[in-house]
Amino acid sequence: MLLKYLKHPQIHPISKIYRDGEKLYIMRHVVEGVNLKHFMKRENRLSESQVADIITQIIKIVKYIKIDYFVKKRKNSSLSTQDVIDQVIHRDIKIENFIVDPETLHVKLLDYGISSTFLTLDDLKSHMNVPVSYAPECLKDSFTSNCETWSIGIITYQLLTSRTPYTGKSKTELFHNIINYESKLSTDHWPYSERAKKFIQNMLGDQVPPVAAIRMSLSMALKHEFLLSTMPVIEAHSQEESGSL
Q1: Residue 49: its pLDDT value, please?
Q2: 164-183 pLDDT tens trace
Q3: Start and end of every Protein kinase domain (predicted)?
Q4: Measuring CA to CA, which of 101, 109, 114, 181 is 20 to 30 A from 32?
Q5: CB 92 within 8 A of CB 131
């Protein structure tokens, strides 16, 4: 479990881990906040600036996980920087895994047991439910860091529209709908800016069906005008100067 080693103010820490035979018990301190999905439903529809703030934080959290893993792994590895970073993927990025402070919009990653180096598709299917934000190619046994970009793009769509792009009456039907791009996802004729629409398209692949290879990287996403234009000027300048985490 990778996340137990990470220390970050926006990753809810694990207090203790106990193993009893085949069972694993994880202890954490109580954390204040509202589940991000519940917050979205309660607010009905968030503003673009609110969504941009939340998505910026989520991207930075995921980038931290990848780069922190790289720092530890690279010490005794002959792999390149990108090779090592690509070996870790947060396999279950979904809106339910985050909590938010309703007043400050400060986001924390809450769910554990979901971040690891790559597993086989059989392992993946047997150890987790399939969230609606799961990338189509990842269900075809093709795990890449582009899966994370897709997932965050779907979360962006959910926060803006308060709608779920993929549905299914069963796990099998949901698998089918995701793999075959049978979704309600559309940015046509919606009451949001062109930059918001373009951001989602860039995160998903910008074609029908979406092409994973042309999705933005997380570093590129942080520099997208949708995120920069909706944050305070001082924060925007800070982001441009700092580049990646």
Answers
A1: 95
A2: 877 888 878 888 888 877 77
A3: 1-227
A4: 114
A5: yes
37, containing H or E segment:
helix 36-43
SS3 category, 173: helix
How far apart CA 22 and CA 10 sit, in angstroms, is 30
Domain 33-242 has CATH 3.30.870.10: no
- List the structure tokens of 15: 């207090």
Show the CA angle centred on residue 150, arms to residues 152 and 145, nearest 5°. Answer: 100
- Alpha carbon separation from 114 to 26, 39, 122, 129, 160 (Å, rounded): 13, 22, 15, 11, 25
What residue type is assigned to position 3 of the chain?
L
pLDDT tier for residue 85 given thresholds of 50, 70 and 90: low
Q: How far is CA 66 from the centre of its chain?
A: 12
C-alpha–C-alpha distance, residues 93 and 150, integer Å: 10
- Phi, psi torsion values for 36, nearest 5 degrees: -60, -35
Sign of the torsion formed by the C-alpha atoms of 24, 12, 156 and 63: negative
Per-residue three-class SS string for 50-111: HHHHHHHHHHHHHHHHHHHHHHHHHCCCCCCHHHHHHCEEECCCCHHHEEECCCCCCEEECC
List the structure tokens of 104.
Answer: 């400050």
How confident is the model over 27-47, as pLDDT tens digits? 666 778 999 999 999 998 899
The radius of gyration computed from the CA coordinates of the chain, to the nearest angstrom, equals 18
